[in-house]
Write a structure and sequence with these properties.
This protein is mainly alpha-helical. It has helices at about 5-25, 45, 105-110, 150-160, 180-190, 230-245, 255, 260-265, 285-295, 305-315, 330-345, 355-360, 400-410, 420-430, and strands at about 50, 60, 275, 280-285, 370, 375, 390, 395-400, 445. The chain has 14 helices and 9 strands.
Length: about 450
């Protein structure tokens, strides 16, 4: 005699089988392969999709305001990105014979300081009162000519330094096509003019701020949570209206989260980004809002939208003063952490740079040194706990994802969508350095 199973029982049984299958899939393989099927829920500019201009040229749809606007017409589509499915690689080391043409030191200095090309002064100090702001990531070249190095060697070093230093942070200027061989000849001629009197001795520095090695370190002052100092605080408080606003589904955040954000959201942000089983990937607060808000209220909160950023700040403010505590030990989180770490050290873009080139404190790396006039932070000291952050120079709020998008753009990479899994994994890796440190959102930075 057969017994029929009630419909409800069939549903429960199927759900259980699907759950087991999903769990097995999530843990399939030691590397826990990342999710690749994630349709971006960002603003059009935040997605960074490609558009075709009337003349047939393809360009990325980037943010219109500064600083992105300066690179609006540039397309870096030929260069490798952080995308997990991107199989492109940077061209191998190349060595070319130095042209026999006569180098022009004046033209070489102009190229050295050309902002559209480099500028080389972003990492190196040279002589001249007009050299501002100079950086200190690379060696001081103010007396480089006193070294009397062979021209071919200096040419090779500029054209593709990987020939001598495989792990250098210096872009392969010639191989990337940023400088032509003839232009490098001019730069070589210019560097030969950089001499001291007597050799290796420069006159006293007239402007200590010009010189990154004598420049005074300027730190931010004031309480970033003081609304008279940080406009982002007022924006975050303004999100209370959004918290109580009913969406097309007839519900508001307040309907499901009793006690207001002060109670319902207390401590929540300390655990993000984290792996969310429902979506099978790492999500930040910003990522979660893009899917959770429309599912529960019917209201869109696209990544990089004003609604998403202000709501994120409101939620994170309820954890201010509490220590960051992101999971990096569970199987899913550990796999994402390792992927994020790999992203941190991966070289991408036209300039063949990795995050570590600027934010790792190691010989030849940029952490705690100047890139132009900006002091680069050390990732291992943690710098995610204050995002979203008010950018004083642009008068807008940026979350950490927009910061990532901008970091790569001037280095010659078409950025990924703000809510992509690749950025989420990288954010988890970076946030792990903030574990145990108190949150303070919104931050304020230049």
């Amino acid at each position: 005699m057969t017994r029929s199973i009630p419909l409800a029982g069939v549903v429960i049984l199927l759900a259980a089988l699907l759950a087991v299958t999903y769990a097995q899939t999530e843990r399939a393989g030691p590397a826990n392969p990342p999710v690749t099927q994630w349709g971006s829920r960002a603003t059009p500019e935040g997605k960074g999709e490609m558009a075709t201009l009337p003349d047939g040229k393809k360009v990325q749809v980037r943010y219109k305001g500064p600083p992105f606007g300066a690179l609006a017409g540039r397309d870096f589509g030929q260069w490798p990105t952080y995308a997990y499915g991107d199989t492109r690689t940077f061209p191998p080391v190349s060595q070319v014979k130095m042209p026999t043409s006569q180098g022009d030191p004046k033209e070489g200095r102009k190229l050295f300081m050309d902002r559209a090309k480099g500028p080389c002064t972003g990492c190196h100090l040279i002589q001249g009162d007009d050299v501002w702001p100079a950086g200190s990531i690379g060696p001081d070249l103010s007396t480089y000519g006193d070294r009397s190095l062979p021209d071919q060697f200096v040419f090779n070093l500029i054209y593709d330094a990987r020939l001598y230093f495989p792990n250098t942070s210096m872009p392969p200027w010639g191989t990337a096509g940023i400088f032509t061989a003839e232009e490098v000849v001019h730069i070589v001629a210019f560097l030969k003019t950089q001499k001291g009197n007597p050799p290796f001795v420069l006159p006293p520095e007239k402007d200590l701020a010009r010189n990154p090695f004598t420049r005074k370190l300027e730190y931010y002052f004031g309480d970033n949570l003081d609304p008279t100092y940080n406009p982002a605080v007022l924006l975050a408080e303004g999100a209370m209206t959004l918290w109580s606003k009913k969406g097309p589904a007839g519900k508001a955040c307040a309907d499901c989260h009793a006690g207001g954000p002060e109670t319902a959201m207390k401590g929540v942000a300390t655990r993000y980004p984290k792996h969310v089983v429902t979506y099978g990937r790492i999500l930040s607060i910003e990522d979660l809002l893009t899917v959770h808000a429309p599912e529960t209220t019917g209201m869109e909160m696209l990544a990089q939208s004003a609604e998403n950023l202000t709501m994120t700040m409101l939620i994170k403010m309820q954890s201010n003063g509490m220590p960051v505590n992101v999971d990096v030990t569970s199987s899913e989180a550990k796999a994402a952490y390792e992927r994020g770490k790999a992203q941190y050290f991966k070289r991408v873009g036209e300039r063949n740079h990795a995050c570590a080139d600027c934010h790792q404190n190691a010989p030849g790396k940029g952490a705690d040194k100047f890139l132009g006039g900006r002091l680069l932070g050390d990732a291992e000291n943690g710098f995610t706990k204050h995002f979203p952050t008010w950018r004083t120079n642009f008068q807008v709020v940026w979350d950490i994802r927009k910061r990532m998008q901008w970091c790569m753009t001037p280095l010659g990479m078409n950025y990924l969508a703000a809510d992509t899994p690749e950025y989420a994994d990288l954010e988890l890796y970076l946030t792990s350095f903030d574990n145990g440190k108190p949150m303070s959102v919104p931050g304020i930075r230049h």
